[in-house]
Amino acid sequence: MDRDSGPRVPEQRRAPVRGHSSNSAAEGGDDLLFSVLGPVRAWRGGEALPTGSPQQRALLAALLLRDGRTATAGELIDALWGDAPPSQALAAVRTYASRLRKVLSADALVSEAGGYALRFRDDALDLAVAQELAAAAEKARSAGDRCHARELIDKSLGLWDGEPLANVPGPYAESQRARLEEWRLQLQENRLDLDLETGCHAEAVSELTALTAAHPLRERLRELLMLALYRSGRQAEALAVYADTRRLLAEELGVDPRPELSRLQQRILQADAELARPVEAQPAPAPRVARPHQLPATVTDFTGRAAFVSELGELLASAEGSVMAVSALAGIGGVGKTTLAVHVAHQVRPQFPDGQLYVDLQGAGSRPAEPETVLGAFLRALGVPDDSIPDTLEERAGLFRTTLDGRRLLVLLDNARDAAQVRPLLPGTAGCAALITSRIRMVDLAGAHLVDLDVMSPDEALQLFTRIVGEERVSAEREAALDVVAACGFLPLAIRIAASRLAARRTWTVSVLAAKLADERRRLDELQAGDLAVKATFELGYGQLEPAQARAFRLLGLADGPDISLAAAAAVLDLPQQETEDLLEALVDTSLVESAAPGRYRYHDLVRLYARACAERDEPGEREAALSRLLDFYLATAARVYATERPGDRTVAHLEPTAYPGREFASDAEALDWLHSEASSLLACVQQSLGPGTLRRAVDLLLASKDLAESGASSRRYEIATVAARDAAAVAGDARAEGRARTTLTQVHRTAGRFEEAQTEAERAEVLGRAAADPWICSNAPNELGIIAICRNEHEDGEAFLLTAIDAFRADGNRPGEASALCNLSRILVSMGRTESAVELAQRGIAIYDELGLTLRLANAKYALGIALSHAGRRTEALEELLQAQEVFAENRQRLWEGTTCYRIAEVHLGSRRSARAAQYAEQALAIGCIGGDWMRANVLTVLGKALNQLGQTGRAQACWREALAIHEQSGAAEADELRTLLAPLAAA
Predict the structure, then answer these.
(1) Nearest CA among 453, 442, 440 for reference residue 326
(2) Beta 594-597 vs 600-602: how paired, if at all?
(3) d(CA 845, CA 866)
(4) Does 558 score more than 90 pLDDT?
């Protein structure tokens, strides 16, 4: 917002007018707003009003800060000039008042008792609103609602717009400015204290680092920083902060740290477990507490299993004691594991008032759910914001356990593959319990209570059948009913399907159903042979489908993804979307397909296996065609997303042609949303399509969806698919497909900081590209080699690679590619000391991107230009370019690039001796993550250490450098030499 475009005061309820309550006063100031938490300004109806000279603004400020009380002329003269007023001071005050009255209105600024007063509503002044919010925060905190208190303080701090009473002269303004700055600092301390109490310690480190640099003698800030670092697992840095503080206080004031700080140091040295925990908050008001209730509905006709229900219920209730309860149900598919688990979970719900989590781990399928993905969903359900969810499995598991500490919550892990998949998902705290279902016995899950679930007894099976079909029909044909449940092998799923068919057909008798099952004796006898039992049971429902429904059921089960969108399903079936939706909804009605979300559908994994068996039997000619259409749909749509983000990029021209069209998008944002929401299904399609006839299109789908490699969220799945594509292409002897897959894999390794692997892939890709005469590989592979050379400080080789890439991009007419290589070459020249040429190359890259109308890639160019300008000593311009790049990366969900840009911004601030800002941005880079993995993390730590050293925090600086040195020594990076040099004088001292 422009500084004078409107007030920062949020909309408030209508408040009383300060001073008199007359109607005229109320009307005069009704639409006026004022600010003092920044420049002194006034608005009427959102339009900025002229407030005059500095002395006139000083008069306005003095009146605003008197809460509507009258100020005498003498008091105003003292406020403006103190002990040295000019000879015409009284006349000047009257002139300023007259001018303000004309601007504000006579009803707003009134003369009375030889002085002046302002009439305005309480909520018309930003300071009053800030004070009201701060008071409300104190009440919320006292009531135990720390999260809401933090939100209110954030709102209060958000009303500040720089220095309060900015550029307002006079002794009164000076004293009020100091008061307001101190209050603001107290609010920041309170907010940061709440951050630590609510477990947001990692996020607080960056701000605390900046604040301690700005206020080095403020011990409370140092104390909060030590605690935040300790809770973030950075114990050495926390202790270093104490050492720095003790030295600084001795040097500057000749005193020791206050007792609270010393006690904190001792607790950190002792690794006090209580210190690592946030304050145990009182329960917050119900609307703000995340208490997930994710259990599926229990079946109304649940039957039998009384001994199991009692056994499991008692065990789960024991979680109220000193240990977590874990029960694992095992049995063949269709035996009723999920039904029993859900029923028991509902029975014990009162024992777990803080909620119940549920997930289908898809363990029986070819793509079991990844634990890190499940943990992400659990953490969101528990109220953790997306930007607070870490990337790695270990960090997510730790945060999950921390979030559940002190809560009583049940976790139902359905359809688990094995113990390894389950372990990271266990709560691990007393008061919580986990209930697991799986097709295997989890003998290697330590501490678990194992339950083997067998088929029903004959009596239970008949009881279940009767509840579904009805007492009247079964009583009339009891023997036939016994024949039915026996033919079903007493398997609950088979009984339920058979009984549901009969219940839906009032003209059938039980004997008719028994005769039909008898005709399928061979299949039903196989019910006792594992999966075939379920397959035979599903045959009953499948046989009742209309031909079009049966075809849809068979073909849609071929797709490997966790679910399928309506548009993708239409491609598989080669039908219009409306007709496809009708078929899918009919399958949902028969319980053969589930509705995962509006417009998305999924199979239970056992049903999917059965559908595929049907397809192999009934669709020998159409299976490959259906999957080929799905691949075409994903490739055409991903190519459209790619082209939307990168106008003019020739990559899309080199992709394999598709026979089936992709989706259209109304906006760039919708296109990007599609790519990220379809990531799992799209990458599953790649891995499923690595055979003859589809291999090249599968590899090209990876090229078109390359944004997933740098998003952070889907990087690991993208890597797995790319490795599989590379290996399949190598086996097939397809040089072009292998070269493209290796070039794509190069980017994956480079993003993760695995430069050795990246170089190996890129060098092999370059050879394959020449053999295949593929212009895409011949331009992108040397470009990747040039980027790797930048990271490995191999400047001459990098320059040669990038010049080759530029020539290849130009020969291909790929101007965005040329711009990318120019920007990369700019970074090489920076490292070689040729900064003027580096700036010129980056500017040429920007000109190309500007001409083509690119946004995301323009951010990469601005990133390169920012680096070049910084090394050229033009740091103000560099900062402007980097900040613009950071904003674009954030908008496009390129988290790793956003973090990397924060690192470069920190470098610029460091070069300008703005140490506190450098430390703040370096902390942000560590929190977000960067392109380059551990190598770049070490570089960020190096910059953070330099900033802290400039701030006099030498102990913490050493801790950062030692961690960075360990990383670089492990990888053999050349940057280790600089760190040894940095640490040498400090170690000697």
Answers:
(1) 442
(2) antiparallel
(3) 13
(4) yes
Sign, CA dihedral 771-775-776-780, equals positive
**How far is the C-alpha of 14 from the C-alpha of 26, rounded, in Å?**
11
Rg (CA), the chain: 34
The pLDDT of residue 539: 65
- Type and span of the H or E element at 429: none
Residue type, 9: V
**Among 325-339, 583-597, 813-827, the range of highest mean pLDDT:** 813-827
Alpha-carbon gap, residue 556 to 956, rounded angstroms: 58
| Percent of residues, the chain, with pLDDT higher than 90 | 41
How far from chain centre, in Å, is Cα 294? Answer: 21
DSSP 652: G
> CA 897, CA 711: separation in Å to the nearest integer?
9
Locate 770 and state its tokens. 């020449």
Confidence of residue 317 (pLDDT cuts 50, 70, 90): confident
Task: Name residues whose C-beta falls within 8 Å of residue 259's C-beta, 6 or more positions apart in sequence.
Answer: none
Paired strand residues for 44: 32, 47
> What's the gap between Cα 609 and its chain centre?
33
Which pLDDT band, with edges at 50, 70 and 90, does 350 fall under?
Answer: confident
Helices (H), 590-734: 605-618, 623-645, 668-677, 679-688, 695-704, 715-732
Q: For residue 125, what is the DSSP state? A: B
| Paired tokens of 136 | 């409300």
CA-nearest of 212, 166, 164 to 189 is: 212
**Residues in CB range of 414: below 8 A, 6 or more apart:** 337, 338, 341, 358, 359, 360, 361, 436, 437
**Which two three-digit tokens encode residue 763?**
């060098």
Query: CA–CA distance from 804 to each of 759, 775, 818 (Å)?
Result: 16, 12, 11
Q: 431: which DSSP letter?
A: T
Helix segments in 733-814, DSSP class H:
735-751, 755-772, 775-791, 795-812
Handedness of CA 915, 918, 920, 922 (dihedral sign): negative
Determine the Cα–Cα distance for residues 955 and 953; give it in Å rounded to an integer: 6
Cα 877 to Cα 862: distance, rounded to the nearest angstrom: 11
Q: Contact, 159 vs 130, CB < 8 A? A: yes
Question: What is the C-alpha separation between 434 and 413, in angstroms, rounded?
Answer: 7
How far apart, in whole angstroms, are the C-alpha atoms of residue 811 and residue 545? 57
Question: Measuring CA to CA, which residue among 41, 71, 38 is closest to residue 56?
Answer: 41
How far apart, in whole angstroms, are the C-alpha atoms of residue 929 and residue 924?
8
Say which DSSP state 288 is in.
G
Instruction: Check the CA dihedral 572-575-580-583 and report its sign.
Output: negative
3-state secondary structure of 44: strand
* CB contact set of 324 (below 8 Å; sequence gap of 6+): 426, 427, 428, 429, 430, 431, 432, 433, 434
This prediction has a pTM of: 0.56
Helix residue ranges, H only, 488-619: 492-503, 510-519, 521-525, 531-542, 547-556, 566-573, 577-589, 605-618
CB neighbour class for 255 (10 Å; exposed up to 12, middle 13-18, buried from 19): exposed
Q: List residues bridging with 329 in a β-sheet.
A: 437, 451
**CB atoms near residue 233 (< 10 Å):** 13
Residue-wise pLDDT for 98-110, tens only, equals 899 898 888 888 8
Question: At 305, which amino acid appears?
Answer: R
Query: Residue 729 in contact with residue 737, Cβ under 8 Å?
Result: yes
pLDDT per position as a tens digit, 566-584:
999 999 999 999 999 999 9
Dist. CA 266–CA 244, nearest whole Å: 15
DSSP 365: S
Q: What residues contact residue 480 under an 8 Å CB cut-off, 6+ apart?
A: 509, 510, 511, 513, 514
Which are the contacts of 98, defined by CB distance < 8 A and separation ≥ 6?
none
Distance CA 911, CA 597 (A): 51
